[in-house]
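Issue: copy button drops trailing tokens. Both records pasted manually instead:
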Amino acid sequence: MRWIKIAGIAAGVVIGYLVVSAVIGLVIYAVIGGVAAAAIYFGVKAAYRNKQVGRKRPDRELPRQQAPDVDDELTRLRREMRS
């Protein structure tokens, strides 16, 4: 009877250790995730403050200058060559 009590206590200690270590592991992962999320948040906030990142998307196309028509340019060059 005495050995059964000792075995029960030992099993309780092992199960308690496993539960506590699992909870501590989850807490550590939660803390690491929170620190990573905070670092990303403050990094983005600092980038907006320093105007390294804009909230509005810039226009992708730049205004293009009107290129002369190739045929018109060729005609002009031929006229200049004749004169």
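Record 2 (pasted manually too):
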Amino acid sequence: MMTRFLVFFMMLAAGLALGQQPNFRGDQPRMSRSLNYGNWVGKRVLTKEFMEQVGLQGEQAKKLKADLDALDAQFTKLDEAINQAALEQAEIAKKVLSEPGASVDEVMKIIERIGKLRTDQAKLATQMLVVIRDSLTAEQRAKANELITAEGKKRMQERAVRREREEHEHKNPPGERPAVPKGW
């Protein structure tokens, strides 16, 4: 049971390592990858409803929140550094792409730096999950696993329904009738 719980959390951590970067105009991404926005497990664990359902309370809940907040602050700093590096990369890339023969060394160094920062974020995401794991009793982990698995399935079903609806709308835009089946 514990192994399934860890595997599930590790898959979620891997998802944290991926994210949006600012576009070339420098706009911020629509959603930050920090604990408060992108890590829905961490966000969910800190809700009053989840804590009540799992039995997290008092000092145990305060310590978990403090530990996750500390990691989230580090994660946010990394996110800001990635966004800044991505903006630098975009500026240098404009120059490199407009000047034939221009060196790409500087762009490659920035790409390496972003890669290291993303690795650091993945490590922090894993630390967040370990903090959650270590903060819960065996019974709480079992209940948390049950709740999070159910929510994950619900989210996947909602995405599938939305994707199917969007595909249907793409094939049959509003106001247009669907094609008549052959043989009618």
